[in-house]
Specification:
135 residues; two-stranded antiparallel ribbon; 43% helix; globular
Length: 135
Amino acid sequence: MATLGDKLVIAISSRALFDMRESHEVYEQQGLSAYSQYQIDREDEPLLPGDAFPLVKKLLAINDKLDGENRVEIILLSRNSADTGLRVFNSIAHYGLSIARAAFSGGESPYRYVKAFGSHLFLSTDADDVRSALE
């Protein structure tokens, strides 16, 4: 079995993994409370795949090719809270993605968790978060 040191660990934001434009628009136009309610009301509706979804699927498929040797791990780093992040995790389960570790930062930038999770790469739609992770 591969150890954490033997793995390629990639952190990804929820907005890179899933298409969250509609819910983000609710947040920008109506605020955090409306966004939270929007996500909670739709927690059983899977989010559509986002820009990085095909890449994540292909990276996770490497593990299948290696007969269970998990050499790639995807970690979710999200600005969502645990409550609003439930829709994201339900979507992960819906699509059968092997993502088990996550951090929900409750509105704060999640880049600070990149090192804590031993991540080699951070994929995000937020350029400032990516720049901060590289520093």
